[in-house]
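Sequence in, structure out.
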Amino acid sequence: MRVMAMIDSLIAAGAERMAVNIANALAEAGIESHLCATRIGGPLEEFVSPDVKLFVPGKRCSRDMRAFLRLRRYIRQNGIEIIHAHSSSLFWAVMLKFTLPSLKIVWHDHFGFSDWLHVRETFYLRMAMPFTGHSFVVNEKLMNFARERLKVSESKLSFLPNFGDLTGDRSKVEPLPGSDMKPKLVCLANLRMQKDHDNLLDAFRLVSGRFDTARLYLVGGHFNDDYYRHISGRIVSEPELKGRVHILGSRNDVAAILDACDVGILASLSEGLPVSLLEYGMTRLPVVCTEVGECSFVLDGGSCGELVPPQNSAALANAIIKVLENPEEAQAKAEKLYNRVVEYFSKDESKRLLEYTRAWSEIGSNQARLAGSWDMSRRASEMFLFK
């Protein structure tokens, strides 16, 4: 069996890390595994297993036919049977099925704004569902969304939780700015408005009033946009933040950074099932995060870490201070989180994926006949390719 995971890029973000983790897990299980980053590669290339074949067709826009044809040629030459499309890559996967009807399509929905599903666009997703053999979701809210809004049948829908897989040499960490200062706080999240770094910075100002040697490290990619300029502008202009908060960008030594820190924080407005939270757990790092998405489920209602309301910098600061002032209690919760991640969200969860993989090969021929309908394919192609 030949399976290709498909994702937009390999920047250091949650869905991208899961695409790499799953591709690696399939290869480890003896399945011929391919990974396609349709637009660009990125820092996560370093973590792709040597047994996974990586392909980057260089898509410049959704209508880039040269990149599309390069990808189609690669699929034919390598005999790809199943495309595991992550997030919005579903639309290109469906397009490929129109031209290669024997392809089987599996969609993995990582939608990170699971608290705002009531405003999520459904038109194109509903158009894609008849061509999709199976759908995976990462939390219960997305499960209900798929059932109720996308009309996906139970037989074609499965819950597959994210799982952490921190790899790399944990002894080789680039020196952190202010590495001799304590305590060290870390937020592993791309610089996007959803992650609410403003709330985190406001909370850190309060924390630094109690711990004047505290340092905060922001680890994750940025897009050189207005949000990044706003956050970086605050850091250099506000006295309580300048020299104390450091934007590290995307890093390949995440495990080593987490090992060097004292508290892992997420201040998000909304989440799905954040991989960052699992990675905090895998390094036994005490956690403070907002109660959004599936964070409460991961932290077992707060028994494995501190939960606070979103957009409440005072509550966030108080929880961080509580962790720092009660290290034994915080470490006990961190140990419980580690055990919970190992039990429910570890790489062993990929075994469930392997069971599904065997089922994918039996996805019925009805889809091939459906995709083979030229008139439907032509009309749908226009909708997806020019959306």
